[in-house]
Every structure is written in structure tokens, then in C-alpha cells.
UniProtKB/TrEMBL annotation:
It holds the Pfam family FAD_binding_4. One of its GO terms (biological process) is lactate catabolic process. Belongs to the FAD-binding oxidoreductase/transferase type 4 family. Residues 41-219 form the FAD-binding PCMH-type domain. The lineage of its organism: Bacteria, Pseudomonadati, Pseudomonadota, Alphaproteobacteria, Rhodospirillales. Keywords: FAD, Flavoprotein, Oxidoreductase, Transit peptide. This is D-lactate dehydrogenase (cytochrome). Its cofactor is FAD. Its EC number is 1.1.2.4. GO terms for molecular function: D-lactate dehydrogenase (cytochrome) activity; D-lactate dehydrogenase (NAD+) activity; FAD binding. It comes from Denitrobaculum tricleocarpae.
Amino acid sequence: MAAVEAASVDKVGLELQAILGDRVSRSQSVRDHHGKDESWHHPIAPDIVVFPHSTEEVAAIVKICAEHGTPVIPFGAGTSLEGHVIADRGGVCIDLMQMDQVLAVNAEDLDCRVQPGVTRKQLNSYLRDMGLFFPIDPGANASIGGMTATRASGTNAVRYGTMRENVLALTVVLSDGRIIKTSRRARKSAAGYDLTRLFVGSEGTLGVITEITLRLYGIPESITSAVVSFPDLKSAVDSVISTIQMGIPIARIELLDKLQVQACNSYSGLGLAEQPTLFLEFHGTTAGAEEQAKLVGEISGEFGGSDFQWTGQLEERNKLWEARHNAAYAAQSLRPGCQLWATDVCVPISRLADCIMETQADLEGSYLQAPLVGHVGDGNFHLTLLIDPEKPEELEEANRINDRLVMRALAMEGTCTGEHGIGSGKMKFLQAEHGDAVAAMRTLKLAFDPQNIMNPGKIISL
Ligand SMILES: Cc1cc2nc3c(=O)[nH]c(=O)nc-3n(C[C@H](O)[C@H](O)[C@H](O)COP(=O)(O)OP(=O)(O)OC[C@H]3O[C@@H](n4cnc5c(N)ncnc54)[C@H](O)[C@@H]3O)c2cc1C
């Protein structure tokens, strides 16, 4: 599909202005801001950016775009990492961040309904006084719409699942402007095709999500965090595998390699031993959380873990997790001015040690720095390759490392991405991972979006 012609852009712009007034922008700075994510991927600005306030406005916008065959790119907080929001065919970017209302909280049913521009931090502030929380926690303060669209997860997924498990229903504007609801508030339903799961992870390629019904949880009586360091990476990973295989209901279990610990020490002032380290968290009753912490302390001791320190103090816990959430920026500070090529894979837990050790051996042969962190309780880990994208040789080297990482994970029955998604950056791996199923995905894409206007050039190549 070619980029949109200037005359058509002008026409679409005027029609959008008629319904949205000054919530339509063609200014260069606004467009530039909406043509990039937080990764190294080369930005490409959309032609027009719009800021709707309601599902009906989104429907009217999409209808106009459909009539002109103009690409539509939904946009949340812009924190994705695989070139998800790049407008490589121009078009209209729908910024959903002004749709930021919590519409309903049903405390007795442990669910809520929100607009897509609500961020995860905003939602948790809103819920705190009710004794409730929403656990999905990508490091960034992403929007709930973007998290739904990327099937995000994060540090808590080992206990609470990903967006896949925690979205109950959606309101979606389809590519012709029709509005549908995918499900109701019931915890279970066996009624028809599961469209909710189809749209979770669809990355804006099937429709625009305008309302999300989420599962909520009671804030646990006790939350305890711990840190433990290991003599080498393998011991740390083996201790994780053992913890998971014993069925301990751990809430967070995060691995940082030595380089990442060095980065966090200097960026977040942690003062940890510069060794492979696990950050952990336990949720439950006071006695339950303490018992979990003691058990995991014993397991890590068996694998050479030393100096197992745990705390229930809010301030200390916050410092630890703040440092974990800033791990990518800490990594970036190892090479000032660099950009991040953040890649993630996920493997069955029994293959995690092999996958991480082979990856580490591979990195030893490279001149690029690449700290390793991971939500390892799920078998999911990330490399943050620190690159200068203006240097083609560094891009090529990062590309080769990424290719080998993905192929290694696939050979171990894993996936090319546990949580960041496909965007444009990982499209080339979809066939290797899914084989003939990609043709079925293409059929679905065309059924929902026959003109290929919804975030074209992402996930599926047509
Ligand atoms: C420092 C850092 C750490 C991160 N850690 C994690 C992590 O631990 N786990 C994880 O899963 N991710 C992580 N990410 C990636 C990112 O935060 C997630 O992918 C997040 O879900 C993106 O949300 P967003 O609001 O920024 O979406 P955007 O980047 O704005 O959009 C992402 C995609 O969703 C689509 N989209 C957005 N809103 C809608 C909507 N309402 N309807 C339809 N489509 C829509 C867009 O078109 C795009 O394809 C991290 C990113 C950074 C920068």
C-alpha cells in the first residue's frame, strides 16, 4: 500500500475537523511524537493525529478513514518496543490518551471498566482506597488500551497472568466504523467465538479498543520483597526453576545478570553485590508470605544463593521495584547516547537455563553490550542491546544476535516474544513460529479489515 496522497490527506483532515474541531492536529511536532515508540526503530510520522473523547467519536473517525482508504494507527502511551506505532504508510493516528476515565468499578465482583487511555498507575491510584489493585505491570506507565492491544505482562505475571487472563470484555470499533462488544462481565462464558482473546494482542491491526473490562484483585494482607545474589547465572536460573516446579505461589521473580546489576547500582543507587541476582516478591497473609520467603530462601541457598535479604517495609520494597522498572534506562546509561534494541523471548521453564546459558555464551563473542533481565518465573527474558543505530555494523550485529536468540527459543519450543509483541520488528519470525497458522491469521485479518487500513504493515504481511 502506498503512502496517502496529499489531496486525500487534506480532505480527510477537513472531514475530521468537522467532527473534532481543534482535536485534529497536523503540526510537525505532534506528528513526529506519534511516529515513534521507545525503541531504536526508525520513526515515521502519521499525516494527521486526532484526540477523540468517546467510542462514538472513534467510530466516526474510522468511518471517514474507511471511506478514503486511509490507514488508522491507534496510539496509547507510545511505550512499545517493536515499531508498533510507526506510520510507514502515513494515515491517521488515533491518540486515545484523552479517553482516560474509569467508567465503573464493581468491587463485589472484582472487576472494572475503563477507557483505553487510563494508565496502569492511574488505575491503581484510583483503586487503592477500595483495597483493590490491577496487577499487570509492564515497566512503563503504559495505557490499558495499549497493554490490551499488545497482550502485555510484566513482573507480576507469574502469579496473576498476562492481559490475556485479565481482560473480561472489550468494546471495539471495527475497520468500517461499526461498534461491537466482545463479551459480558460474567467470569466465564461459552457463548460463541472468543473475540475478546482475538483482540487482546491484535496490536491495532483488527480494530480500535475503546473500553476494557478488567479483572481486579484484593490488595494482599502482606507483601514481602527479597533480594538474593548467586555466584553465576546458571545457579540463579536453576533456583528459579526449582522454585516454580515446587509450586510456590510467588508473585514476582526477576533475574538480573551481573551487567544489569552494575547498571542498576549506579543508576538507582542500590549497592547490591555485582553478581547475578534475583528480585522476589511474596503476596499472602502475613504468615503465608513469610513462609514463602523462608522456603525460597532455603531453595536459593541450595543453589549457592547468598545474603538472602527480605523486607516488608514499603519504602525498601518501592526502591527495589522502582530500580527494576528503571532497568532499561539504567542499561541505557551504560553507554550514554545509545539507543535500546530491547528484545524478549519466552521458553518452557524446563528449557530456561539452557536458553539463557547459550545466549550468554553467544553474547561473549560480541562487542555489543547487552544486559539481560527477565520475568524468569514465566520462562521469559529480555536482552537490551545498546546500539548506535546510525552505525550499520552495529545494527547488523544486533540483528544477528536477535535472530539467533529467537531461533534458539523456537528450537526449545518457545516463542519469539513473550510480551513485547510483533509490531514490525518481529514479523519476519512469525512464519517460523506458527507455520501454516499464519495463513489462517491472514484470513482473519482480511475478514476484519478487508481494505488493510488498520495499522497496516504490523504483525501480518499481506
Ligand atoms: C522501559 C520499558 C519497559 C517495558 N517493560 C515491559 C514489560 O515488562 N512487559 C511488557 O509486556 N511490555 C513492556 N514494555 C513494552 C510496552 O510498555 C508495552 O508493550 C505496553 O503494553 C504498550 O502500551 P502503550 O500504551 O505504550 O501502547 P502503544 O505503544 O501506544 O501502542 C502499542 C500497540 O498497541 C496499539 N494500540 C494502542 N492502543 C490501542 C487501542 N486502544 N486499540 C487498539 N490498538 C491499540 C498500537 O497501535 C500499537 O500497535 C516496556 C517498555 C518500556 C519502554
